[in-house]
Design a protein that fits this description.
The chain is α/β, with parallel strands linked by helices. 46% of the residues lie in helices and 15% in strands. It has two domains: 5-148, Rossmann fold; 154-223, Orthogonal Bundle (Arc Repressor Mutant, subunit A), CATH 1.10.10. It has helices at 37-49, 60-66, 89-98, 114-122, 135-147, 153-165, 169-179, 184-191, 195-209, 214-223; strands spanning 14-19, 28-33, 53-57, 75-81, 105-110, 127-131. Strands 1-3-2-4-5-6 form a six-stranded mixed beta sheet, sandwiched between helices. Mean pLDDT is 80; it is low at 1-13, 15-25 and 226-235. GO terms for molecular function: DNA binding.
C-alpha cells in the first residue's frame, strides 16, 4: 500500500485518533503501532473502510503509555511493525506479556523474514503478516484476531500437532530448515540433495499440512511447538 499522503486526513495518535462505525454494540478496535506516518494513515483508511475503529500509535513506547486509557469493553487487537526505533515490535510483545496484556497481537515483518516471524510467534504474537501485504489478507488476519478468543489456542495446537505428525521424517527436516529461514539451495546443500528434490519435498509437506504458503506453515509449526533446529535423518539419494 503506497497511497499519497494528501488522500488521507492527518493521523492523530492514541484515543484522539479513533474513527469507526458505531454499531451500538461493543466496539472493535485495532491499535496500529508503526513509526511510519504514511503506513499508519494507509492502515487507518483500510480498517475504517471495513467498519473497524482504529487507534494509531507512532511507537511502541507510545502504545505502552496509552494502555491505561484502553476501553476495557472493546474487542481489540494490536497490529505492530517489527522494526521501529526505541522499542521494536519484539520488545513490545515481551513488555505486553509481562504486564498481562491479553489481546491478540499481529506482527508486520519484511517479506521472507521467516526467522523474525518465528521469534514473534514464540514471543506471543497471534499471527504475522508480511510486507508488502495484501489488503484482503491483512483484513482477514485482523478479523480472525478480533473474533477468536485467546483461550482457543489449545485446540488449535492439537490440530497443528496432528498435521505436523503426518509428515515424513524428511519432510519434517525440510520444514525445520525452511522455518530457520534457509532457501531451497541452502537446504539442498545441508541435506546433500538436489534443489529439485528439496522443491518436491517442500510441495509435498505443504500439501500434507493443508497450507498454501510458507507463512501458513510457519504458523502451524509454531502453534504445534515444533522443535528447532532440524533433526538429522538417514541420507537420501538426491
Amino acid at each position: 500500500m503506497t497511497p499519497e499522503d494528501e488522500r488521507f486526513p492527518p493521523v492523530v495518535s492514541g484515543a484522539e485518533g479513533r474513527r469507526g462505525a458505531d454499531t451500538g454494540s461493543a466496539s472493535r478496535v485495532v491499535h496500529v503501532v508503526d513509526d511510519d506516518d504514511a503506513v499508519r494513515r494507509a492502515l487507518a483508511m483500510l480498517f475504517r473502510s471495513a467498519g473497524i475503529t482504529v487507534e494509531t500509535h507512532p511507537s511502541g513506547l507510545a502504545f505502552l503509555d496509552a494502555l491505561g486509557n484502553l476501553d476495557d469493553g472493546a474487542v481489540g487487537c494490536v497490529l505492530t511493525d517489527v522494526r521501529m526505533p526505541g522499542l521494536d515490535g519484539l520488545d513490545l510483545l515481551r513488555r505486553l506479556k509481562e504486564c498481562g496484556f491479553g489481546r491478540p497481537v499481529i506482527v508486520m515483518t519484511a517479506h521472507g523474514d521467516v526467522s523474525t516471524a518465528v521469534r514473534a510467534m514464540k514471543a506471543g504474537a497471534a499471527d504475522f503478516v508480511e510486507k508488502p501485504f495484501d489488503d484482503q489478507a491483512l483484513l482477514a488476519a485482523t478479523e480472525a484476531a478480533l473474533g477468536t478468543p485467546r483461550a482457543s489456542g489449545a485446540a488449535g495446537a492439537d490440530d497443528a500437532a496432528e498435521r505436523i505428525a503426518a509428515l515424513s521424517p524428511r519432510e519434517r527436516e525440510v520444514l525445520d530448515l525452511l522455518i530457520a529461514g534457509k532457501p531451497n539451495k541452502l537446504i539442498a546443500r545441508d541435506l546433500g540433495l538436489s534443489p529439485r528434490t528439496v522443491e518436491v519435498h517442500r510441495a509435498r509437506l505443504m500439501a500434507r499440512l493443508g497450507v498454501g504458503s510458507l507463512a501458513e506453515a510457519v504458523r502451524l509449526a509454531v502453534q504445534a511447538e515444533l522443535g528447532l533446529p532440524a533433526r538429522p535423518v538417514a541420507p537420501e539419494p538426491g
